[in-house]
Each structure stands twice: as C-alpha cells, then as structure tokens.
Amino acid sequence: MAAATQIQLSTNDALVLSAVFDPESNPLSSITSLVDASLPASLPNISASLLNILQTREGEILLPLNNASPSPELIKTALSQLTSLIAENQSYASAYNNRAQVLRLSLGDDLFSPELRDSSVWTDLGEAIRLATDPCSGGKVCVLQGRVLAAAYMQRGALILKASNKVDAYRVNGTDSADGIGKLPAALQGMDKMSLEEIASKDFEMAGRYGDVDALKMARVTNPYARLCGGIVGEAMKAELRALNEKNGFA
C-alpha cells in the first residue's frame, strides 16, 4: 500500500490561502459600511424640495412596471418618461440608475448583444455613480444616496460578470473578433475573463459598502483570489483523498 502523500503548497499558494481564509488578512471580511443612517435623505446637487418632487414623479413612472411581467408598451412608456425626467433634471442620479434597470428589463443583460451595447445602459450606470458620489461628504452617505449607489454598482457588476462568462467565446486563436470583445464598452475592451471578474468583484464590493448585503456575497464569490484559492484547495483535497484511498487499499 502506498504511503500517504503530504501536500506541499508553494509560498504564493500559501499566501493566497491565508488571504482568503484568514479573517484578519482577507480584505472582504472587514468591509466598512459607507452609509450613515443619521444623515438626512439627500442627493448631490439636488435641493430637498426638488428631491421630493423628483422622487414622486419617478415613483409614478415606475409603478406600472411593478408586476411580474410588464408589457413591452409599459416598458417603452417608462423609458420615454425617464428620458424626459433626465433631460429636465440632468443631475438626478436615481433616474439614470432606474433607466438602466428598465433597459435591462427590455433588452437583457448581455453586453455583447448589439441592442444592449448600443443603448445607454452602460453610460447610465456610470453617470448614476458619478452623480451620486459626493466628493465633499468625507466618504459617508445617507441611506437614499447609498441605495442609489448600491443599485448602480450592483447592476454594473452583474453586467460585467455576465460578460466575463462569455468573453472566451469571442476569442479566436488569441484574437478578438470584430463583433466580439472590441464591441464591449471602452473600459472593458481587451480584458480576459479573470480581469473582468476582478472588476465585477470590485463593483459588487462597492455595492456592499453602500448597503447591499447580497452584493457583498457576490464580491466574495467572484473575487479572483478566492476563486484561485478554491482551485488550490480542491486539488489538494483530491490528492489527499487519493493518498487515503491508496493507504486503505482502494484504487
């Protein structure tokens, strides 16, 4: 019977394992919330009186979509109304985020599809994040501001993650096809699967910082180091199991 084999990890693998499983060294295990519930509801560059008006109008626009399967006509109407709301109030971050969500409802989540790629969904999410981020706030935001930022980061992360799952299909002999990766948003062009996953993980992490607990879970799942570590542990466990079977006389 073969003797049990002791698995030796490289220095790099050991560091990766430590970073993922050591609560003190894993950056995703100690994320600090950026939401301060004591702050009054507000959005940057929007007065309190105008904010109430915009929220009411936005709620009226979105209400007809609040069912399991809104019709294409209802979606088209909501998109038109949100576009008008944005044109009249270009600093209102929430409307950009909600327009992106309605576009996804209409066109799906595939950034490689011509319809979604040519829509405003990517720029809407970037604009929602830019407008809702107040550089003078010292990092902390109110619940409303955090909700907009969390939703926008979560949506963008989801789009990037889905693109990462398809990116290899658009590579032919190591080159990008004319209708594939080169058609992604400029910020994502030329990236491989792992690079896209890393960006998605960072967006999920930011959504988590702004209060989305599910996004924080996604940040851990999509973190490249965690995924790499999972592979290392999986191979180590298989090797240990093989050694144990050999020791006990099993093939």
Helix percentage: 55-70%
Distance between the termini: 10 Å
- How large is the radius of gyration? 23 Å
Structural class: mainly alpha
For the report, how would you describe the main beta sheet? Answer: 2 strands, antiparallel
What is the overall silhouette?
Answer: globular
Whole-number mean pLDDT: 81
How would you characterize the overall build of this protein?
59% of the residues lie in helices and 2% in strands. A hairpin with a 2-residue loop joins strand 1 and strand 2. Helix 3 packs antiparallel against helix 4 (93-107) and helix 4 packs antiparallel against helix 6 (121-132). The protein is mainly α and 251 residues long. Mean pLDDT is 81; it is low at 1-7 and 19-25. The radius of gyration is 23 Å and the shape is globular. It has a two-stranded antiparallel sheet with strand order 1-2. The protein contains ten helices and two strands, in the order αααααααββααα.
